[in-house]
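Support reply, case 0932

Customer input (verbatim):
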Amino acid sequence: MKVSGVVPLFLPLCRRLWPGRLTGLSMALLKATALEAAILAGHLVLYPTGLVQERRCAVAAMQDGATRLPVRSAPPVVLLHGFIDNRSVFVLLRRALTQNGGRRVESLNYSPLTCDIRAAAELLGRHVEEICERTCSDRVDIVGHSLGGLIARYYVQCLGGDRRVGTLVTLGTPHAGTRVAPLADAHPIVRQMRPGSVVIEELARPAPGCRTRFVSFWSDLDPIMDPLEAACLDHPDLDARNVRVTGIGHLTLPVHPTVATLVREALDAAHHAAERLTGGLTVA
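Our regenerated output:
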């Protein structure tokens, strides 16, 4: 079915999702909403497949007692989903990161009953330590969607995670807090994502010497961000780059092929830069 054919069906939904933003309603907004609805339907089908934690694969041991030589390889990537979601949201992004002999990718499910960003960040820290030990890696990279990015940022800034995280990529993460859906304040973790919450204030504090690089993707048609720029990371002590994505919504960010390509390029660029700084590249 063509997107243009279903656009009129989603006009009422647009008005509910983007209250106060529909002056001069554009075709791009309607198409983005139709795409969001289609992705939501597909994700609901896949959701049961991501309810359990994925199997942890041990690194293959060297045979015949051979000594493993140090190899400069890209760090593992940890995928962290958003609010009331699970790892199934990353099916397409995971494929993009692992294809053609790409990176080792693992995902973490945290409980939909999680009520505290700080507790989830501590769980993430334990998960990262386990991955580093199992894969003989000093560091990992993290890609977090929505709330997942905020959890990862708290781990990096407030729990010493910058020691382990080389690059943190966030997709539609409310770095400055979001005012959307005020009726959802009954959930404690939603209240922690509000502007001025204790967690948001903690993240705004000075973070001198933070070693993690940040890349924040934000969309100009994201109905979960109020204001839209809440998904931009603006902190004087952080090495952060904001990437604006046009024409897609919140649910589309972790599944859109163009975004997946940009995420992979951001991780690869950071890895190659680290190699140059540590002597991994020699120019004759």
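We compared this against your earlier run and they match. Two observations from our side: The first strand starts at residue 77 and ends at 80. Residues 35 and 240 are 29 Å apart (CA to CA). Please reopen the case if you see a mismatch on your end.
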